[in-house]
Design brief:
Blueprint: H1 5-20, E1 42-47, H2 67-75, E2 81-86, E3 107-110, E4 113-116, E5 142-146, H3 169-175, E6 180-186, H4 188-201, E7 205-214, H5 221-231, E8 235-237
Parallel strand pairs: 1-2, 1-6, 2-5, 6-7, 7-8
Antiparallel strand pairs: 3-4
The structure holds pyrazine-2-carboxylic acid (VGL) and zinc ion (ZN).
Amino acid sequence: MRASASSVSRRRVVQSIMALGLVGVMGRPLRAAGTIKPDARSALIVVDVQNCFVDGGTLPVKGGADVVPVINKLASHFQNIVVTQDWHTPGHASFASTHAGKKPFETVGLSYGTQVLWPDHCVQGSEDAALHKDLKLPTAQLIIRKGFHKDVDSYSAFEEADRKTATGLAAYLKARSIDTVFVTGLATDFCVAWTALDARKLGFTTYVIEDATRAIDLNGSLAAAWKQMAEAGVKRIQAGDIA
Ligand code: VGL
Ligand code: ZN
């Protein structure tokens, strides 16, 4: 039996949707696989892929090392790559050990607001603070270190936790005409989220590549971070979405 005109055109529509890879899976937003193409105005930001945040480190993030091969592969798609390092002084204000009677993962009030307290981690110049040995980013152009003021933390790669002190990253990117950032690394719900939220605030088109991140997830912090990022217009994508 010959197909009717309407069934032919319906089939064509279905075929072109399939060809574009626009097949939605369980409520995920429809997006063609491999269709986001970073250009000269795009930068990959690799947040805190350091020994401290993987197994054997001082503040290990579950599955943290799994992001390394994903990020190494993503790197080939980017002309601009920025790497960050959490880079604390000994006795840093974000360390529980600095505050008498406090334990890691409790909070304390500091001059700029509530601070989560962490185990001592990523101390400047230590092996713990070094980049993961398997991270291969030979084309990266900038390493930005943050959290080096003893009394102020800095989850964000753009602005310290006092919400006043800039790291200089925004000016660097803008001076180089970069208007779009793709954020990866550790941890999704702290340094990645704060970096992505600040990027939006500063006017960058902002993507977080979810499978190139891993989370700490402290008291629901991961769900809260994704909600805040969605509200701020951060685009949540997967590594396979990048062409
Ligand atoms: C981070 C907690 C403390 C992070 C840094 O990189 O997400 N988290 N310092
Ligand atoms: Zn830190």
